[in-house]
Each structure stands twice: as structure tokens, then as C-alpha cells.
Amino acid sequence: MPETDIYLSIIIPAYNEAARLPKMLRRVNEYLAERPFTYEIIVVLDGPSDDTREVLGALASTVNNLLVLDCKTNRGKGRTVKRGMLAAHGRIRLFSDADNSTDISHFDKMIPLFERDFDVVIGSRHSRDAPGAGQEMPQVWSRRLMGSMGNLLIRLLAVRGIRDTQCGFKAFRDYAAEKIFSQTVIDRWGFDIEALALSRKLNYRIGVIPTRWVNDPRSHLKGRDYLSVLWETLRIQWNLFRGRYNLRRDACQERMRKR
In a designed cystine with 172, which of 1, 80, 176, 214 is the match (CB 3.0 to 4.6 A)? Predict the structure, then answer.
């Protein structure tokens, strides 16, 4: 398939996902087989120490348009998503967590927003971001508490107006993905915040869709990671303050790529 013909690239970051990746890939493959647009599925391995590589190898022949990028050492979800975004060829580039907490069918809600010239469209689990959003199987109370406190600080420091910055279901137009992820420096959990902060500073139009999110208790996110996210948020603000990012847009190129 010629690279320029690809409408959607789905990037799936995978660390130790031997148990969850088969279900995720089967669901994505099933969904895309019923859609009229062209696509590619990019799984980016983040130095797994379990049998993820072997499981993926066994699945490869059953998944259409699959590309595997293998990072030999663990560098973090942010670095993994960055590699996938910059290797992708789709006009729209979506990253989705390997646990399938947000079903791929939510992309149907994103399409109309991209057709209305939004540059970035994100999923949210918070009803104040998007009516109808919610969690079918909520996280434990301690994790919800830490998440709520962290999100308040994130909104104050970096991304105002968005209550759920961490939902693992975000899509970008090709030019936005390349502009943002070519500059990101946060390799781990705070990368979502950096991507959204840059989207805001670049004046990209950000749309939000409601998601019905199903918590997976086997999440790789640990309690200490919430503190790391807050530290990374401070790093992002410092980088913005000292002009670390290129915030100039090429309007001519964007118009050409929207055609």
C-alpha cells in the first residue's frame, strides 16, 4: 500500500503485554476490516521482558497491515508513542493503550471532528470534558484520589480546561503529530501532558469525545508514577518558559496536507 494512501495509523505501545495484546489486536483488526478507509497498525515494543515478542510473532500473520517496531530497551511509554507517531504514514495518527480500556470503536466519534478541521482529538473519561463520558469499571479509590489531585495541578500548571489529560486514546492530524512529537522530551507517563501543552501553545484546535472506559487492574501505572507525572509537568513548564520548543507553524504546509 503506498504510504500516501493511508488514512489511519493506529499506534499501540507495548511493554509487557503478552497477556493483553492478543485481545487488543483481534479487536482492532475486526473493527478496521469493517471500515472503508485504509490503515496501518503499528505496535511499538518498549523493551519487554516477558513473552510479548513471541506472542506478537505468532499473531502477525492474522493481523492485516501490521508493522512492528522493536525497541530493545525499555525507554517509557512516551518515547514509544513518539517513535510510532514519527514512523506512521497515516493522515490521522491515533495511539491507543494495549489494554483496550478504550474500545477502538470510539474512533467513529473522532472522524466528524477531523472533518470539521480539528487538528487534535482526544478521548476523555470525565463528563465535564464531554457529556456521556465515564468509567464502567472504576479504578480503586486511592488511585482515583491521586489522579484527581494530580489532574488539578496539571490543569493549573500546563493544560487548562481539560480534566482528563491521561486517557490513552488520542489522535492527531499528520502535520500536528510530526510537529509535536518531533519535539517531545518526556519519555514516560507525563508525555500526554507535554503533547497537549504543545497543542495548546501551537493553537491547534483540540476536540474531545466521551469515552466509556473499562479499568484493567493489571495496569503498569504504579502509585509512585503519579509523583513522576507531577515532576514531569514542572519540567514541561520550565521547557516552555525557556523556549525549548519551536512553536512556529507552517500554515501553507498544513493547508496542502489537509487536501
Answer: 176
Beta strand pairing call for 169-173 and 92-96: antiparallel
Those residues with Cβ within 8 angstroms of residue 36's Cβ, 6 or more apart along the chain or in another chain: none
Q: How far apart are CA 188 and CA 238, in angstroms?
A: 17
- 171, with CB counted inside 10 A (0-12, 13-18, 19+), is buried
Residue 259 three-state SS: coil
Which residue numbers in the chain have pLDDT < 70? 1-4, 137-153, 155-158, 215-226, 259
Q: Please compute, for residue 166, the number of CA atoms within 13 A of its CA located in the half-sphere on the CB side.
A: 19
Give residue for cell 510510532: 84
- The pLDDT value recorded for residue 119 is 98
CB 209, CB 124: distance < 8 Å:
yes
The 10s digit of each residue's pLDDT in 214-255 is 766 655 556 566 678 888 988 999 999 999 999 998 887 787
Contact 60, 45 (CB under 8 A): no
d(CA 91, CA 38): 10
Taking only the tens place, the pLDDT of each residue in 186-216 is: 998 889 999 999 999 999 999 999 998 776 6
pTM of the predicted model as reported, rounded to 2 decimal places: 0.89
All domains in the chain, ordered by first residue: 3-258 (3.90.550.10)
- Taking the C-alpha atoms of residue 135 and residue 139, their distance in angstroms, rounded to an integer, is 8
Compute the distance between CA of residue 205 and CA of residue 127 in angstroms, rounded to an integer: 20
The maximal CA–CA distance of the chain, rounded, in angstroms, is 48
